[in-house]
Fold MerR family transcriptional regulator.
Amino acid sequence: MNFDDKSYKEKKVISIGTVRELTGLSERQIRYYEERKLIFPARTASGIRKYSFLDVERLVDIANQIEDGVQTYEIRQQWKKKEKQKEDWKKQMLKGQLQAHFKNYDGK
């Protein structure tokens, strides 16, 4: 059986109680970080929050930054900046691939 790291880490299957145990954060803290738009748990039909392993990693990172005095707003801004940089990089890579492809296609 071949497990894709990305797929199992992204699956929203972990309860808030387990996340609490894994991170050492209280349920109140976890919910607060959700309110501050730092994590995005899935919801079951009955409204129960479900988290992924990536959410757990992100919560540990948040807790460490908060402990270092970083505000939630600053954390969110840092992540937005990183995401934009990642998107810009992907666009540049795609642009380069397209240019190389069409250059070769035209025979130039």
